[in-house]
């Protein structure tokens, strides 16, 4: 029997670039993690710049008391004139005395703390011994020296895995920080399909953190969790291979892969998801009227680029010019590459000047990029989409599929409106 040739991009040669990058740092992940983990606190050991970044990114009001803060490293700390560990211990003691509700405390490394080689892993062990068992102190790096902004979540969840208890139970674990309403939708669908019990990492409270063992199977909900995937594998858990649950098609394939692991027929999944899938497809179609036939260029930012490109090309009718991602994890991203039709450049990493040359040469209808590149490209007459908004906005599973498509349609509609109202100005920009 002849095997049909693969039509996807898994075998497409990858353009690998290693040069100047334009990315947010991993501290940004705290903005959604502190909302998800209700009794956790994220203490950044860093500079005033780190503190300003978090305050600005979170939009925290002066009256709010969020579950994150910064232990400021002053000049004397950076110069080695003070014992940073002593000062850190004092700040942690003050924090826990004021906030007795904290059950998990994350010491988050930054560029300054890494430059002075402050050993936060040893500090976490010391502080756990001092403040446990009521408080567990963990650490991870959110430094922007080597990380993109979604790697902050990956590092945080990977730090949790070794501390999780052992179990022999066969259970499904959902991995990735989802907004509560989206997580509830996923759990409801899985329950209707017949899959239970289901645990989540991260859990909303420390007491609900899952146990892990050789019979644990897990499904990733985010494509940037490579280190967490490796940590779970070391604990003996097994990953369910599937595309990620973006859009109607991706969500259905993800659910069917999970169901197959538990011996549930795909027909059962189709029966359960018929109504929400129909709603999703109707909502997507409304945005696809604007997106169909438009060319899109993904610059590397969030590691969401491949599943989003699959969604936009297959369900919204867009044409991908280049799909670039900070890191291409063949194991995690393979199912997405299998579904993306051959044609676009697939690239990993970034040399921003070379990539901007390709953007200028191809002049796509829409460029997905970071905040630092969006305004210059807009000034040159190119429509852009902020990549960071795709992480802050609920976009997973059926009920959010229309919103996801609309995020890409909105800048194109805005551009069409401006072109009608100010044609001379738009022509000058181009």
UniProtKB/TrEMBL annotation:
Residue positions binding [4Fe-4S] cluster: 25, 50, 111
Annotated GO biological process: light-independent bacteriochlorophyll biosynthetic process; photosynthesis, dark reaction
Cofactor note: Binds 1 [4Fe-4S] cluster per heterodimer. The cluster is bound at the heterodimer interface by residues from both subunits.
EC identifiers of the protein: 1.3.7.7
UniProt cofactor(s): [4Fe-4S] cluster
Known pathway: Porphyrin-containing compound metabolism; bacteriochlorophyll biosynthesis (light-independent)
GO MF term set: 4 iron, 4 sulfur cluster binding; ATP binding; metal ion binding; oxidoreductase activity, acting on iron-sulfur proteins as donors; oxidoreductase activity, acting on the CH-CH group of donors, iron-sulfur protein as acceptor
Keyword Coiled coil in annotation: no
Entry keyword Oxidoreductase: yes
Catalytic reaction annotation: chlorophyllide a + oxidized 2[4Fe-4S]-[ferredoxin] + 2 ADP + 2 phosphate = protochlorophyllide a + reduced 2[4Fe-4S]-[ferredoxin] + 2 ATP + 2 H2O
Keywords: 4Fe-4S, ATP-binding, Bacteriochlorophyll biosynthesis, Chlorophyll biosynthesis, Iron, Iron-sulfur, Metal-binding, Nucleotide-binding, Oxidoreductase, Photosynthesis
Listed Pfam families: Oxidored_nitro
Segments forming domain Nitrogenase/oxidoreductase component: 25-405
Functional summary from the UniProt entry: Component of the dark-operative protochlorophyllide reductase (DPOR) that uses Mg-ATP and reduced ferredoxin to reduce ring D of protochlorophyllide (Pchlide) to form chlorophyllide a (Chlide). This reaction is light-independent. The NB-protein (BchN-BchB) is the catalytic component of the complex.
Family label: Belongs to the BchN/ChlN family.
Complex and partners: Protochlorophyllide reductase is composed of three subunits; BchL, BchN and BchB. Forms a heterotetramer of two BchB and two BchN subunits.
Protein name per its UniProtKB record: Light-independent protochlorophyllide reductase subunit N
